[in-house]
Amino acid sequence: MTNYQHRSSISILLIDDDEEDFLITRDIIADFPSGAYTLAWEPDFEKAKVKILQNEHEAYLVDFRLGAESGLDLISYSLERGIMGPFILLTGQGDLQIDEEARRLGAVDYMVKGSINPDQLERSIRYGIQHVLNLNEIKELNQQLERRVMERTRDLARANERLSYSNESLQKEVDERKQAEKALRESQKIYSAIASNFPDGMLCVLDKDLRFLLVDGKAEEPEMRNKQEWIGSYASSMTFIDQKEAFIKNLKKVLKGVPLNMEVTVANGEREYQINAVPLFDDEEKIQNLLIVCKNITERKKAEKEVLRALNQEKELNELKSRFVTTASHEFRTPLSTILSSVSLIGRYISDSDQKEKIDKHVHRIKSSVNNLTYILNDFLSLGKLEEGKTTFNPVSFDLEQMISEVVSQISPTLKEDQDILLSIAEGTFGEIYVDEQMTKNILINLLNNASKYSGERQKIHLGLGRENGLLKITVKDEGIGIPKKDQQHLFDRFFRANNAINIQGTGLGLNIVKKYIELMNGHIEFSSEENKGTEFRVAIPITQPSYD
Ligand code: ATP
Ligand code: MG
């Protein structure tokens, strides 16, 4: 609707079935002071409806009584279709009760026919028009507002959509995080279970920034006692580790895939830990965390140190003993040989004595005792040298036949009554041989000496010699007391003596020395024995190629 002030005249439609009323109203309007109003007339109710819908008038004066119809119905019909009027209801005298009804429906004013005054009607029309303009403006504003609200609602809906999308991704992230946390909690549970059953140890899981995710375990390192407090702390806070810098450096290497295995001390060496660390991988095989296993090894280390200390002490004592034995044996040999030569001389000086036979017997006894003592001392000396590493394998070319006859003649005086050495030598055994002569000789003397010592009178000793596949083979067999089964495993141990040999003189050193010599020559020794039947020792010594440089 346009503003009525800009139009040349204001068109008013009177809807009234009484022509008389039209004429009167027209006169009233003609009396309006501004004079800018025209009045049209419509007496028919239905036609009025059509005209109102065409909306060609600025204001409507509606009679209450329109034949059988009511002006009020027309007003509500129009208002329902969006035509705001303004409608001014005209009634006859005595229709006062409809005033309220008219206003309720939306008529702007109400006037009683016959008492209408021009000023009042004009004011009412003007007010009505302005009112409708205002209403339309408000309607327009309302529509604008509604549009804006709609736009805003749409924006909001879009924003909401975006929000719900980001919410979704946020939710997804949260879900993933929750899942990761759940997995971590699960593995933490496993680690905790392991840790609490892991004696003297601690289990820690660290993230890539070397921050604790889990600390657990039975070992209660005082600084780590409050395990929960360590969650989130950096490994570099472990200032109580004496080798902290190396430890951190190694942990960083674990992040590159190098497993860690190191021992550290804490609290200035008060306690010791064995630390193992490995990387933990995520689903994409990327290093995600570190697993550290710390084991308190303080006690073990103490025990190790104690054992080492005892071992060293034992070693020192042993060295001291063997040095003493060596020195003493060496020193004993000189006076012994003096005794031996003096006894021989004395024997010769008193050869014409009538007590010669008795003297000879004692001289012989002294000589054999001195020889025995010399044997023992030689054994001690050999052992001392062997232990000090002074005995070295020194092969030379020598005449085997010559050496054997020397050995036999050296042993013969000590043999018991009718204890013959029966030699059997394989063909091709003699000739140039290249082994350590002194060691071979000592081995033979020791074995023959045992064979004689542990056999009775008239029991034979069999000495066999042969050469086979680059080996010098020696067998010494007797028919003596044999070695009890249970003692056989210790036979080569130092100072070991079998049960059945206790009453026979000996120190238990001979076979130990034999074994050591054979080992030095890369040879081999074995035996078989049966108690009261006899014993056989079999030795194989590699014959070395001579070197002529
Ligand atoms: P020694 O140091 O003077 O040789 P030993 O003869 O007692 O003293 P080994 O030669 O090392 O020491 O022998 C160790 C032990 O083995 C002997 O004490 C003996 O019990 C047993 N044994 C060695 N050879 C024989 C053998 N031929 N027959 C029976 N027992 C033997
Ligand atoms: Mg012996």
Automatic annotation (TrEMBL):
Residue ranges annotated as transmembrane are none
Tell me the keywords, alphabetical order. ATP-binding, Coiled coil, Kinase, Nucleotide-binding, Phosphoprotein, Transferase, Two-component regulatory system
Would you say which domain of life the source belongs to?
Bacteria
| Entries under SUPFAM superfamilies matching the protein | ATPase domain of HSP90 chaperone/DNA topoisomerase II/histidine kinase, CheY-like, Homodimeric domain of signal transducing histidine kinase, PYP-like sensor domain (PAS domain)
Q: What class of enzyme is it?
A: transferase
Every copy of the Histidine kinase domain together lies at: 327-545
Record keyword Membrane present: no
Recorded GO molecular functions are: ATP binding
Occurrences of domain Response regulatory (ranges): 11-128
Q: Please give the coiled-coil regions recorded for this protein.
A: 135-190, 294-323
Pfam families with a match to the protein in the record: HATPase_c, HisKA, PAS_4
* Name of the protein: histidine kinase
Question: Which source organism does the UniProt entry give?
Answer: Imperialibacter roseus
